[in-house]
Design goal:
CATH architecture of the largest domain: Alpha-Beta Barrel
Helix content: 40-55%
Shape: globular
Number of domains: 2
Distance between the termini: 43 Å
Largest sheet: 8 strands, parallel, barrel
Strand content: 5-15%
CATH class of the largest domain: Alpha Beta
Strand order of the largest sheet: 3-4-5-6-8-10-11-12
Number of strands: 12
Bound molecules: D-xylulose, cobalt (II) ion
Structural class: alpha/beta
CATH topology of the largest domain: TIM Barrel
Number of helices: 16
Length: about 425
């Protein structure tokens, strides 16, 4: 029995000329792109928190959304929320969703009561996954909203908070495993500091490294095959966050012996806050061998904070997917819409419309990215630019067969005087513009 919350049960694909706001114009899940169905290339996920738990608050105002499951803090409301959520996943035809513990259960006060309430909803999710075929892209724990986390979760000066964080992660990892989750994400919103004056950086780094090692050990113990991922973000809510960006996370993983166990979930808006582009973070993760998955949401470029808006810029999205496709596409990762509708977007259909637009934008971006790569002009240019390195001699240099003295001698004996060549930036920009 449908709850009747949404005006339609299924959003159809109607093609680029459709003017129906509740239809896809570019996302046809069965369309083949670079040898895979579009659905399998993009691997879309809906974020439970933004669509079903967010009430429309901002720093200056309270809830604007009136949902039948608000504001009750009980299991009955949590169950209705789950019913509506799975109706939306089905209406959109998304293969995945993602959630935090706190998104899906009421807060009943104690750890034990909350765990039981959470597991009861997880039981409902298991049945609904079975019924609808929708799967879990990733599970995660909310270790940042409740006041107990205000000074950090694993990085808290109080070891009892460290223990509480560990117990929460264990509960969420168990649930993710039970639901066949493809990944498990750790985003450390409070793993950082508000002021260095009260902070011991060395201790906090050791604590965070220990926790992540415990998580990885436990994953292996229970046989969870999902990928553990850290989600970088430089700040907000903390003034400074330790998982600043991809390169910083990689250094942390190396330091704690985890670089082969943990990958990154890269969010577009977080990349921008770190002073990077989205494609920079994706390309960096690929270069370091830790690319996992993406949160596809943009910030308002003027406001300077994380506004979690749905993507609507095709050229930007195309560039991001072009790096993902060059790296071989997603394996266990996917495209999670860590995005929320604006607080004036009150209607149930606004939730559908936002996701439809985002899915169409991503579909257009991915198809443009595939066309760029299939054309070959751009990747071949980059390949050629470095082709001087391909000979045995220069490969030997990279492999450590030649030292600094021999290199210096070669320059003089062979009279090497390199001639600079054009980097062709504008040419490449024009080439890419042919596809977007
Ligand atoms: C916060 C953020 C989170 C993580 C999951 O900026 O991106 O929603 O994706 O905790
Ligand atoms: Co995110």
């Amino acid at each position: 029995m449908s709850t009747g919350f949404f005006p339609v049960e299924r959003v159809p694909y109607e093609g680029p000329n459709s003017t129906n706001p509740l239809a896809f114009r570019h996302y046809n899940p069965d369309e083949m792109v670079m040898g895979k169905r579009l659905e399998d290339q993009l691997r879309f996920a809906v974020a439970y928190w933004h669509s079903f738990a967010y009430e429309g608050l901002d720093p200056f105002g309270g809830p604007t959304f009136q949902r039948p499951w608000f504001p009750a803090n009980n299991q009955k409301a949590a169950k209705l929320k789950a019913d509506v959520a799975f109706e939306m996943f089905t209406a959109l035809g998304v293969p995945f969703y993602a959630f935090h513990d706190a998104d899906i259960r009421p807060d009943l006060g104690s750890f034990k009561e909350n765990r039981k309430a959470y597991e009861a909803i997880v039981d409902i999710f298991a049945a609904k996954q079975e019924e609808t075929g929708v799967g879990l892209l990733w599970g995660t724990a909310n270790l940042f909203s409740h006041r107990r986390w205000m000074a950090g979760a694993s990085t808290n000066p109080d070891p009892e908070v460290f223990a509480y964080a560990g117990a929460t992660i264990k509960t969420c990892l168990d649930a993710t495993h039970r639901l066949g989750g493809q990944n498990y994400v750790l985003w450390g919103g409070r793993e950082g500091y508000e002021t260095l004056l009260n902070t011991d950086l060395k201790r906090e780094d050791d604590q965070m490294g220990r926790m992540l090692n415990m998580v990885v050990d436990y994953k292996h113990k229970i046989g969870f095959k999902g990928q553990i991922m850290v989600e970088p973000k430089p700040q907000e809510p903390s003034k400074h966050q330790y998982d600043y960006d991809v390169a910083t996370v990689y250094g942390f993983l190396k330091r704690h012996g985890l670089e082969n166990e943990v990958k990154v979930n890269i969010e577009q808006g977080h990349a921008i806050l770190a002073g990077h582009s989205f494609e920079h973070e994706i390309a960096m993760a690929q270069a370091l061998g830790v690319f996992g998955s993406i949160d596809m949401n943009r910030n308002d470029y003027q406001s300077g904070w994380d506004t979690d808006q749905f993507p609507n810029n095709v050229p930007e999205v195309a560039l991001a997917y072009s790096y993902i496709l060059q790296g071989g596409g997603f394996t266990q990762g996917g495209t999670n819409f860590d995005s929320r509708i604006r607080r004036q977007s009150l209607d149930a259909e606004d939730l559908l419309i936002a996701h439809i637009g985002a899915m169409d934008t991503c579909a257009r971006g991915l198809k443009a990215a595939a066309a760029m790569l299939e054309d070959g002009t751009w990747p071949n240019f980059v390949e050629n630019r470095y082709s001087g390195w391909n000979s045995d001699y220069w490969q030997g240099v990279l492999a450590g067969k030649v030292g600094l003295e021999a290199l210096a001698a070669k320059v003089e004996t062979e009279g090497i005087e390199p001639e600079p060549v054009s980097g062709k930036q504008e040419y490449l920009e024009n080439v890419l513009n042919r596809f977007v």
